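From the methods appendix. Each design record in this collection lists the tokenized structure first, followed by the designed amino acid sequence. Records were kept in a plain field format so they could be parsed without special tools. The example shown here is representative of the layout used throughout.

RECORD:
FOLD TOKENS (127 positions):
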């Protein structure tokens, strides 16, 4: 009977270790899922509240999701005129460079993106 208990305990411990490892792996993956972006126009009278960033081909080459966002603009789409998905680490990079970042005092700095003669704002949502 003692041998059966030791075997059951060993199987239980192995099961717990495997499940814990699997849950840890899923946790690591979930931090890098990405998110979605929505694009809206910024009126020129509101530009004082934004830091201006000029979008270039280098930006589009580095972040294909950013290119997709600007290539799919539909001015008839309401307030948000384009949407795109972004994956992984690019989510944080795009957010800090092109949407909102925090300065050294913790204040939010909103970015207005100048492209093709107009100003835009990106709203980001994480998955």
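DESIGN:
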């Amino acid at each position: 009977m003692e041998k059966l208990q030791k075997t059951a305990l060993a199987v239980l411990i192995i099961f717990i270790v495997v499940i814990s490892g699997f849950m840890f792996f899923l946790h690591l993956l979930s931090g890098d899922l990405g998110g979605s972006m929505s694009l809206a126009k910024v009126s020129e009278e509101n530009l004082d509240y934004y830091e201006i960033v000029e979008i270039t081909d280098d930006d589009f080459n580095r972040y294909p999701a950013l290119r997709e966002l600007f290539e799919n603009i539909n001015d008839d789409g309401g307030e948000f005129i384009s949407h795109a998905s972004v994956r992984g680490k690019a989510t944080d990079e795009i957010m800090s460079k092109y949407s909102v970042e925090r300065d050294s005092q913790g204040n939010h700095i909103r970015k207005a993106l100048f492209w093709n003669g107009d100003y835009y704002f990106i709203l980001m949502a994480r998955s």
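APPENDIX NOTE: The first strand starts at residue 35 and ends at 41.
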